[in-house]
Amino acid sequence: MSSRREPDVTRVVVLAGGVGGAKFTLGVREALARRGDPEATVVVNTGDDLWLSGVRLQPDIDSIVYALAGVNDTERGWGRSGDSERVNAELQEWGAGWPWFTLGDLDLGTHLARTGWLREGLTVTQVVERLSARWPLGARLLPMTDAEVDTQIVLADGRRMHFQEWWTRHRASLAPARFENPGIDRARPAPGVAEAIADADIVLVAPSNPVVSIGPILAVPGVSEALAATSATIVGVSPIIGGRVVRGMADVCLAAIGVDTAADAVARHYGARADGGLLDGWLLAEEDAALARDVDAAGIPAVVAPLWMRDAHATAAIVDACLAAAGR
């Protein structure tokens, strides 16, 4: 990629999910704030959503809201900081819920508010807007769809279970045959998603799990079409550093779909936009610099940069590298 002047960026869209997506979004906010640019629009995975003990949980939405609000538990990586678990303990005494899935008391307040609004007839988009209004987040959050398309795991022995049971209870130790989002073929992008992508100057694919965080977003009918049609540059950030996942069990998910746990393999999985895939550019970690030539050969211009999201400042530098890549 030859060097050019970095373009003026005023409209940024981020595709994100999970803890990695939350950390990346913090960096996006900081990088854009330094430039005086307006808020980014973050399209968030809702495939992790579930009903539990009568309330609707949206783990990825909540992780990003809490992170941007500065109230997230940075030690555990999920939930609210300083939370207690008194209600959760009482639920366990009643034999309700999942004993291996903890609901913090403050977190449960979010779930109850969400469930009440949904019962009153609000859409998921409207609920996310209300949740976002409590704190100055510095970003606009949109769910990928208003439809319920919870991720189901089909195991090698034919059994099915919700993604959260497979991920949290079994720690991805049960061999998956495939991942499904029942009903997603009838889903539509949430209001504002396609429009934000169409109007964007740059679309950033966060270093989230490619299979269960980014995959469901791309699977919503209309999203991939919007990405193919946008004039924005689409730049992704590798979730793999030095042949290892940064967090979680994305390697198990990648293996289930026949993709190696390698930065170049994930880039090829997304594909070059010029060949009908997703990407116009791909950031690899310095540890994977030797793979840049393979990514270039796949038709995806590669950029090597430090990718450890140690804090918001380091992550903002990653976002700066993404914006610079868009002008090359």
Structure description:
This protein has 328 residues and is an alpha/beta fold. It has a domain at 12-50 and 139-325: CofD-like domains (Rossmann fold). The chain has 13 helices and 14 strands. The strands form four sheets. It has a seven-stranded parallel β-sheet, sandwiched between helices. It is globular. The model is unreliable at 1-5 (pLDDT under 50).
**Global morphology:** globular
Instruction: Encode the helix/strand succession as letters.
Output: EHEEEHHHHEEEHEHEHHEEEHHEHEH
Please give the count of helices: 13
Mean pLDDT: 94
Number of DSSP strands? 14
Secondary-structure-based class equals alpha/beta
Give the key terms.
disordered N terminus; three-stranded antiparallel sheet; Rossmann fold; 328 residues; 14 strands; 39% helix; 13 helices; alpha/beta; globular; seven-stranded parallel sheet
What is this structure's SSE topology?
Layout: E1 12-16, H1 18-35, E2 40-44, E3 50-52, E4 55-57, H2 59-69, H3 86-93, H4 105-119, H5 124-132, E5 139-143, E6 152-155, E7 160-162, H6 163-169, E8 176-180, H7 193-199, E9 202-205, H8 210-219, H9 223-229, E10 233-237, E11 240-241, E12 244-245, H10 250-256, H11 263-270, E13 281-285, H12 292-297, E14 302-305, H13 312-325
Parallel strand pairs: 1-2, 1-9, 2-5, 9-10, 10-13, 13-14
Antiparallel strand pairs: 3-4, 6-7, 6-8, 11-12
Helix pairs in contact: 1-2, 1-13, 4-5, 7-9
